[in-house]
Amino acid sequence: MIARKLFDLMSKEDQAWALREGIVEPDLAVDPVKVRKHLLRREKDQQNQFLSWMNLHDVYQITPAGDRASTIRPGHPDHTLFHYGARTQLIEMKREEGVLSPVQQLRIAELQDRGFDVRVCRSSAEAMAAAKEYL
Predict the structure, then answer these.
(1) pTM tops 0.85, yes or no
(2) Within its chain, how far is the Cα of 8 from the centroid?
(3) Handedness of CA 3, 9, 14, 19 (dihedral sign)
(4) H helices within the chain, ranges in order?
(5) Fold of 59-132
(6) Which residue in 1, 95, 104, 129 could disulfide with 100, CB within 3.0 to 4.6 Å?
């Protein structure tokens, strides 16, 4: 059996394989709701890592609070970064297997049409690399 700690370190593809093969701890394999919550928690961890990195590098940014309704338009990317020289970058974070909703696709296309740099990143490392282009 694969322990939760090892499962957490596995790639999404390996996690899916382990679940299909039934070789993970019972609490992950039996309850698909727990698996979904686990994956969402990993996405939140990626978001928090990126936020910590931005704070460390003094990146001025706006990120909606996760504990209450946002006043930003529906579909707006997760992070709006304001770089020196009046340059704005927007980053939407998704899990590896995550897909943009139709409203997110529409909002991203609208922002790109207005000349904004909008990125969809699959990890905190990818988001940091995108933001570093402006530092």
Answers:
(1) no
(2) 16
(3) positive
(4) 4-9, 12-21, 26-30, 32-56, 102-113, 124-132
(5) Trna Endonuclease; Chain: A, domain 1 (3.40.1350)
(6) 104
CA atoms of 82 and 85, how far apart (whole Å): 9
Burial degree of 15 (CB within 10 A; 0-12, 13-18, 19+): buried
User: Tokens 């922002």 sit at which residue?
Assistant: 111
Per-residue confidence (pLDDT) for residue 69, from 0 to 100: 65
CA gap 74, 39 in Å, rounded = 23
pLDDT digits (tens, 9 = 90+) for 32-69: 666 666 666 677 888 888 999 999 999 999 987 666 66
For residues 15 and 7, the answer to whether their CB atoms sit within 8 Å is: yes
Q: Which one-letter DSSP state was computed for residue 72?
A: S
Tokens describing residue 117 = 């740099």
Place of tokens 């927007």: 90
CA distance 107 to 70: 15
Asked if the model's pLDDT at residue 28 lies above 60, the reply is no
